[in-house]
Design brief:
mainly alpha
């Protein structure tokens, strides 16, 4: 099956009312981006771009911001997807560190810091799934420090 067959089927679903215009646009973008960003010029790591970005998100479980920072700095010039994900991860890590710090200084910190930790774990998993699908996902409540 080729890209034109996929787009034709997608258009048929839209015309039949099986999907909304928003779903159509999202899937069309996914089909087109998957076709052209699987192996961009200069990307020769032996792992596809989407898997690398998912690995960037997953590396937060091992080293907080250090591994994603190193990965981003080394490969941000080779891939727009890596650059976007790296900025999202660093914004997330910095934002949630600041939130936790402020909460620890206040009296309510001992109650809310565990809630933030659980939310962070869930958000990282969601970001990994989105990355595998080729999507970028800005973490909720992140302050856009790096743009």
């Amino acid at each position: 099956m080729n890209i034109y067959d996929d787009l034709e089927k997608l258009k048929k679903l839209l015309d039949e009312g099986a999907i909304t215009q928003e779903e159509y646009e999202r899937e069309k973008t996914r089909i087109l981006s998957a076709q052209y960003t699987v192996n961009p010029a200069g990307w020769d790591l032996g792992i596809d771009e989407k898997s690398f970005v998912a690995l960037m998100h997953a590396s937060q479980f091992l080293s907080s911001f250090i591994a994603p920072l190193v990965m981003w700095l080394l490969f941000k010039e080779k891939s727009k997807l890596v650059d976007e994900a790296g900025k999202n991860i660093l914004n997330f890590e910095l934002s949630y560190f600041l939130y936790s710090l402020i909460l620890c200084i206040t009296c309510i910190g001992s109650v809310l810091v565990p809630v933030i930790a659980i939310a962070a774990i869930i958000f990282i998993i969601i970001a990994m799934i989105k990355a595998i699908n080729g999507e970028t996902w800005p973490y909720p409540l992140s302050i856009r420090i790096l743009k």
